[in-house]
Design goal:
The chain is an alpha/beta fold. It contains 14 helices and 16 strands. The strands form three sheets. The protein has a seven-stranded mixed beta sheet with strand order 4-10-9-8-7-5-6, with helices on both faces. Strand 15 and strand 16 form a beta hairpin. It binds pyridoxal-5'-phosphate. Pyridoxal-5'-phosphate (PLP) binds next to helix 4.
């Protein structure tokens, strides 16, 4: 990679890894990305679960340009904008009836939105006279963001271990993981939920909220909870007077075949956190969608949320979000991501992924809609972990064949376990799905031969 005016042997733009050379991407279109050397890549990772409407959407680009032409920025301490009001209204409607009369706080991404949600839950408890409530219970093997507050409630050990001395830690419970279920799936929905009840009792009334990803994202690779789990969670939070924060940064905005994933279980969180697919990659955008009850406590109480971000509700970012949401609705992309719908691309994707079962290292293929995980093992019968680094080697091999996937480590216990996350754009075609899955199968077979 050329560093032109840069004298050091590393890139001027801080890279994810100093051990890798990253191709320079030039442009995108639909499910494809094109680099400067003329290679093209089918984006089965959706750029880490971001690109739901696909790359290079002209209508979104136009909406952004139009907003920029009118107004680039005004501070929310002085103004609101119709761009922000419009997206907030649309998003409340998109989130459904439980959010009628609620309000949306826009941020510049998922981590900021999680921080905002944590503080909102704390202030809600203070407003209703529960100043003693501040703890946030979360789950092991989860991910809620890179900033210190979001990291403190995350359970991804690799990403948090070295920062632990800098964090305030609260109680964590297990994330449902039926492939390696500690309860052997004997009423495991009830057993996992009982862990929340127990953790709450240990807080002696100090808990303000519980945060979880309704379907595990990158850390466990799209592990879907047992059927009754989310409804148990909802009931327990209500019984203990705490708020349920659903982190739908990865699962929201259509990704799993519902507007928000909690809808799979007819459940509604008090606070939804959205990101990734909300801006769809067209702008850094996150959102905290709060129910009327939460907003009312502040509006009728102290009157202001003690929180502020310079780029809260940035006009260009929310204009991008509006156009992305419009595209999702106009093109029926939530339906396209519904794997239970015959003829949908998600349905075709489920079928195509079955072919990976031929590979001896594939232990589990899981997920919902267009959020899928593949866990590798060294022996299927014993589920013994795959060799460390296998997922990354498969991802590299797939990239050489022109397919992008998202490799992760640590699904078993935070350090052992190898898996891929797949999250293609909903505009992908059936032919592209077949081709991409076939390349991935060959990449896995290649790596199996070398192991
Ligand atoms: C579930 C979940 N929450 C929060 C985040 C943090 O979002 P961001 O990286 O946009 O700050 C992520 C990012 O991967 C995520 O998957």
């Amino acid at each position: 990679m050329s560093n032109s005016a840069h004298a050091e042997p590393w890139p001027a733009c801080f890279p994810r890894s100093f051990r890798r050379n990253y191709p320079r991407v030039l442009r995108g279109g639909g499910a494809w990305l094109y680099d400067e050397r003329g290679s093209k890549y089918l984006d089965l990772a959706g750029s880490a679960g971001v690109s739901f409407i696909g790359h290079g959407d002209r209508a979104v680009a136009q909406n952004i340009a139009d907003q920029l032409g009118r107004l680039e920025f005004a501070h929310t301490s002085m103004f609101t904008t119709s761009a922000a009001e419009e997206l907030a209204c649309d998003l409340l409607a998109f989130a459904g009836a439980p959010y009628r009369g609620g309000s949306v706080y826009f941020t510049s991404g998922g981590s900021e939105a999680v921080e905002t949600a944590l503080k909102l839950a704390r202030q809600y408890q203070m407003e209703i006279g529960h100043g003693e409530r501040f703890e946030v219970i979360s789950r092991r093997q989860s991910y809620h963001g890179a900033t210190l507050g979001a990291m403190a409630v995350s359970g991804n050990q690799r990403r948090r271990a070295q920062y632990l001395p800098m964090m305030r830690e609260f109680r964590q419970i297990n994330t449902p993981y039926c492939y390696r279920c500690p309860y052997r799936c004997a009423d495991c929905a009830g057993a996992y939920a009982a862990e929340l009840e127990q953790a709450l009792e240990q807080t002696s009334g100090r808990a303000a909220a519980f945060i979880c990803e309704p379907i595990s994202g990158a850390t466990l690779g799209a592990a879907v909870p047992p059927r009754e789990y989310i409804r148990h969670i909802r009931r327990i939070c209500d019984a203990h007077g705490i708020l349920w924060i659903a982190d739908e940064v990865m699962t929201g905005c259509g990704r799993t075949g519902r507007n928000f994933a909690a809808e799979h279980w007819q459940a509604a969180a008090d606070i939804i956190v959205a990101g990734k697919g909300l801006g769809g990659g067209y702008a850094p955008l996150g959102a905290v969608i709060a129910t009327r009850r939460v907003v009312e406590a502040i509006a009728d109480g102290s009157g202001s949320f003690v929180h502020g971000l310079t780029y809260n509700a940035h006009p260009v970012a929310v204009a991008a979000g509006s156009a992305v949401l419009r595209r999702i609705k106009q093109a029926g992309l939530v339906g396209a991501a519904d794997c239970a719908r015959p003829g949908s691309v998600a349905n075709a994707f489920s079928a195509a992924l079955e072919s990976l079962g031929e590979c001896r290292s594939v232990g589990d293929v899981r997920g919902l809609g267009l959020l899928r995980g593949i866990e590798f093992v060294s022996h299927r019968d014993t589920k013994a972990p795959a060799k460390a680094g296998m997922a990354a080697r498969v991802a590299d091999a797939a990239q050489r064949k022109g397919v992008l996937v998202y490799p992760m480590q640590g699904c078993i216990d935070g350090s052992r376990g190898e898996h891929l996350l797949l999250a293609p754009p909903a505009v992908i075609s059936n032919d592209q799905i077949l081709w991409g899955t076939e390349q991935l199968r060959h990449a896995i077979l290649d790596i199996e031969q070398q192991e």
